Amino acid sequence: MNWRGRPLTSYDVVVQSIAATRTRSGLRVDAELDTRRYPLGIAISKAQLKSLPIEYHDTHGAWNYTVRPEGCRGEDPVQVTDRDVARRRVLDLLADPMLTGMDRDDLAALTAKIAPELGSLREERLHRKRGGPRRHGAGDNKRPILAPADRILLSVIYLRHVCSQNLLAEMLGITQRTLGPSIKEVRRLLQEHGISVTPTTLCFSSAQEIEDFIRTGAPVTPRLQLTHQLADPALTGMDRGELAALIDQLSLQQAALIERRRHQQRGGPRRPGTRGGVFRQKITEAERLLAAVLYERKLGTRQVLADAFGVSLGTLNNALADAQPVLREAGITLPPATTRFTTGAELLASVISNTSTS
After folding, report:
1. CA–CA distance, 290 with 320 (Å, rounded to integer)
2. Cα–Cα distance between 214 and 99 in angstroms, integer?
3. pTM, whole model, 2 decimals?
4. Cβ(279)–Cβ(317) under 8 Å?
5. Do residues 198 and 192 lie in contact, with contact meaning Cβ atoms separated by under 8 Å?
6. Half-sphere exposure of 171 (CA within 13 A, CB side)
7. Confidence grade of residue 138 (pLDDT, cut at 50, 70, 90)
């Protein structure tokens, strides 16, 4: 209903109600129905919004403004075809095995396995949102922005803790509300099929960092460089490949242990709407296992390791409480190192020294 209580039963009624608006100062409104199609879930960048010819009024400018008809200032509006090309380029970049943790054939096999069920989940969600069946046939509307394969890829990237949902949405030019339900549905299917996605120590905060990593194959952020240093064979007592295999082997048990502990802390299961524990952490799950390896090697006290990882002692204690039982249950024993460090800076300096002399 409109403000006068008139039922808005059709588009004609809506247009007529708007066109009938009058004010004592002489305002008249012209209204007509725009029947063109506009894709949903598209995000507008700050630069594009700033380029629009909008003049904000002095009084309540957030609500009162004038849009001039002369077009955009500076940056041209992005066409739909340009968006599609840019989005496909980003998806191809994110499908790199260095980010997904699997080769492209394995990713394709995963997609083929769960994609058919993903369509059913989407229809179920839309049915609940509509409150009933479709009013039109399933083929009458424009195709979704993200294909099932794209939704699965983005979910894998997110569940591996490569970056946040906000960054993924920004890179793809879509809204987070478009991306979030897709990840939730894919996560549900992965759990039903017993498929686990191993988190990585990679965690990027910008698209440029991801592109640089793909191009060089080397850690390009201070956090990644720090983790790379602490995973040095001189500290862990094993080469990087063995360490990566160990983390992959134990990550599932560690995730189960963490979830069991958090279940006890909550006093019950997660409440509906929670994000499944996938968010930017002070210390990632892979780093927890790395910290446990370094501690078992007796390289220094807990405070030394906390300083080396750049976290508080409490955070490191929690990390060790999660990771050490996993090492013990797996029967993994690590020989103590020949050197014990008294500060985190001294520990990190030893790695730099070994690298420069080798």
Report:
1. 10
2. 8
3. 0.56
4. no
5. no
6. 24
7. low
